[in-house]
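Researcher: I need the complex structure. Ligand is uracil. Inputs:
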Amino acid sequence: MIRVTLPRFGRFDAWRAAARDLASARVPPEGVAWADPDTPPDLFGAEPAPPPADHPVIATQDFLQLARQVASHSDPERWSLLYAALMRAQGDRRFLSNPADSMLDRLTRMAKSVRRDIHKMHAFVRFHELPADGPRRAFGAWFEPEHPILEAGTPFFAKRFADMDWLIATPEGTARFEGAAIAYGGPAPRPDLPPDASHDLWQTYFANIFNPARIKTDAMRSEMPRKYWKNLPETRLIPEMLADAPRRVQAMRDAGATEAPVFAPKVTARIRQQPDDSLPETLDQAASQAARCTRCKLCHAATQTVWGKGDAGAGLMIVGEAPGDQEDLAGRPFIGPAGQLLRQAMAEADLDPDRAWLTNAVKHFRFTPRGKRRMHQTPDRPHIEQCRWWLGLERRMVAPRLTVALGATAAFALTGNRSPLTPRRGTIEPALDGGPVLVTWHPSLILRLPPDRAPEARAQLRADLAHAAQLIADAPEG
Ligand code: URA
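Model: Output:
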């Protein structure tokens, strides 16, 4: 019998080299005894291994990957099993793709068990901070895996904790990382690890994510098997938390439901008010349906839907971006500073706001709170797209002969064109639903421009509105 003793670390590569030589000499599996460093010596002596011969040895990548995992299994027969599989594959490689094969099945289950143990190691190693001499922090951990996985499981920690020195001790040996590579050493007694402040934090976190109403002890046991418990600080809490769970569940029942978010009653009231989702036939019906709109999230924080206002029989529709702070409170469009500027410019262009339909692309105010103030925010594309439903209804019912788009949001809502506004200003584009759209500046942009640029933009807005007045006057009424 040939005896091959594998080292404690680097053993897969050692097995692979020895197995290749033995297989090339066609040594049968029963002719080799594989030993670990802890295997007692063979009292009856051992034959020397024959020199490698010329027979080619074939091992697929899949087999080597499987073998590498099996090499970390605790079964003392793993080496002879792997060698038997290697020898068998020389004559019949197909068995490695036959899941019903009992040898392959055993190896696959062993590999799976090793993978699971490595996964648990990555999840359950708990480091304790150690006193450090140098600039790097140092940590130590004790872990008791099911299999000898130290070498296979620790490269993960070198990547994850490359900026600290650490030592992981297991009954199989120790892995020590000091900034460059992991050095493996033989078994040492369990180190005396100092208490670690982060473990209290970890316990607090664990206690807080524990939901007494959702206890699934089988799932818990499978995720966190009992054999790992003794080195996990948080598991000390489990028996008490399980015992206290019925009382906590009862207390939760007695306390009743927690309060819904502040906006919920407002939204619920709007929805309950008029449970009608038939297609509106009049502008008033559309307005009252829009008042209950929850198509996008803006309804949660806004005070109300700001529907259009003006002359529904007018040939001119003016579309802004979205209501601002004052419009949101009053429920009417264009009454704040930008609205004032628009109304002035309209007056200068000989347009009467009461003889036009004034509305917005988005009908809820979008803002971010800053202290007590609500700062306007431009609606995003999904808000505009959701609100196009209402704008479309409004347009069908008002049926304007000309629409003025104030700014990029309105221009996109009406035409679907998101390109920059500067070259488009003053031009006429087709609306998505037909009809001409005159594109111009939004008055709030003019309010934000520096004093040297604002007058020109304001003059352009006035000129565009005058152009709109002219077009309306020229266009025949339908
Ligand atoms: N800005 C708009 O776009 N619409 C308004 O209603 C008010 C300001």
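Model: Summary of the prediction. The chain has a mean pLDDT of 91.
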